[in-house]
């Protein structure tokens, strides 16, 4: 079995002292650390200054672009055989990333530790399950609060970092190059993993701590959230499901003129075609096997997703 060489990717925007604390936690508690790559996503508070002097590779943006884009850009600067994605306000327990990486390589899976808030009163979060947002209908997930009986448990979604992905899996589940701003980062990976038959595993006995905030330290907009969610659906579902269901039933009324252009751009359509060629699950299985509900009528009539194949 391959020995993990771990590349940690951290994205940061105005994180203050949290960034250095996160870097120190990773270094103190990760034995098989290969490198840390930081994306300074347009910070203006000085938190990312002089980080290079600590031995961290730094990519700088003059303005904020977004988490998914930043992570994808950082991966191109990494050399490890396992990628770990963290926010800049996290801590990890001793051996947390090492053990997640070992299991990820052994099982060819995406692996996440249990998550906890940084406050002493926070409850452990043992995983998450995929769902549609009850209010808005787009892709989301809900936390699992009950402690699993098994040390390693398969769940259907990711809801927040940190998690690790073997490099050999990354290109298949990677974020769209057109995602911007906030929203949809973990939903994108979770949905791609489902359609490709890639397991998402949660490890019970190690933890990543997270500074959960009530408000964002940057501006967000519903336009970027709806655009990101629509991009995910356009890439992951076949043309019939997109045009017969997702576009008219959910996204059409929420999309700007520019977002509509992006959804039909050559770049996105190339991503769509490439992903459709890799899929091993039908669009209808999103409803029957992931959400455990009946699929829409227009999806039920299709026996096989265009471009999908049988076998991994």
Poorly predicted parts? 305-312
Strand content: 15-25%
Q: How does the major sheet shape up?
A: 5 strands, mixed
- The CATH topology of the largest domain comes to Spore Coat Polysaccharide Biosynthesis Protein SpsA, Chain A
What CATH architecture of the largest domain would you give? Alpha-Beta Complex
What class would the helix/strand composition place it in? alpha/beta
Distance between the termini: 21 Å
State mean pLDDT (0 to 100 scale).
Answer: 93
Q: Give me the oligomer status.
A: single chain
**Total individual domains:** 2
Described by the principal axes of the CA atoms, the overall outline is globular
Q: Helix share of residues?
A: 25-40%
**In order across it, which strands form the biggest sheet?**
3-2-1-4-10
The helix/strand order is EHEEHEEHEEEEEHHEHHHHHH
Count of β-strands: 11
Helical element count? Answer: 11
Q: What is the name of the CATH class of the largest domain?
A: Alpha Beta
Q: Output the radius of gyration.
A: 19 Å
Superfamily at the CATH H level of the largest domain?
A: Spore Coat Polysaccharide Biosynthesis Protein SpsA, Chain A
Walk me through this protein's architecture.
The chain has 312 residues and is of the alpha/beta class. It folds into two domains: 205 residues, Alpha-Beta Complex (Spore Coat Polysaccharide Biosynthesis Protein SpsA, Chain A); 77 residues, no CATH class. Helices cover 36% and strands 21% of the residues. It contains eleven helices and eleven strands. A hairpin with a 6-residue loop joins strand 7 and strand 8. The protein is globular.
């Amino acid at each position: 079995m391959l020995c993990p060489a771990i590349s940690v990717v951290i994205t940061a925007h105005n994180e203050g002292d949290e960034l250095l604390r996160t870097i120190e936690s990773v270094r103190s508690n990760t034995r098989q650390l290969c490198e840390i790559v930081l994306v300074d996503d347009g910070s203006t508070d000085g938190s990312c200054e002089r980080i290079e002097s600590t031995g961290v590779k730094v990519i700088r943006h003059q303005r904020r672009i977004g988490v998914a884009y930043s992570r994808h850009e950082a991966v191109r600067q990494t050399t490890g055989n396992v990628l770990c994605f963290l926010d800049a306000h996290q801590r990890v327990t001793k051996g947390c990333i090492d053990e997640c990486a070992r299991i990820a390589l052994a099982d060819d899976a995406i692996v996440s530790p249990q998550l906890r808030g940084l406050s002493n009163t926070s409850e452990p979060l043992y995983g998450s399950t995929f769902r549609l947002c009850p209010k808005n209908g787009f892709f989301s997930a809900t936390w699992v609060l009950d402690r699993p009986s098994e040390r390693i448990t398969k769940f259907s979604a990711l809801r927040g970092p940190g998690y690790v992905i073997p490099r050999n899996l990354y290109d298949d589940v990677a974020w769209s190059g057109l995602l911007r701003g906030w929203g949809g980062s973990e939903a994108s990976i979770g949905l791609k993993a489902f359609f490709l038959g890639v397991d998402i595993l949660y490890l019970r006995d190690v933890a990543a701590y997270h500074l959960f905030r009530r408000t964002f330290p940057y501006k967000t907009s519903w336009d970027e959230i709806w655009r990101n969610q629509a991009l995910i659906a356009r890439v992951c579902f076949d043309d019939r499901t997109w045009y017969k269901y997702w576009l008219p039933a959910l996204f059409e009324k929420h999309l700007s003129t520019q977002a509509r252009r992006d959804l039909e751009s050559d770049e996105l359509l190339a991503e769509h075609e490439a992903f459709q060629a890799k899929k091993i699950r039908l669009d209808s299985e999103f409803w029957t096997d992931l959400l455990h509900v009946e699929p829409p009528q227009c999806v039920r009539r299709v026996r096989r997703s265009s471009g999908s194949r049988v076998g991994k």
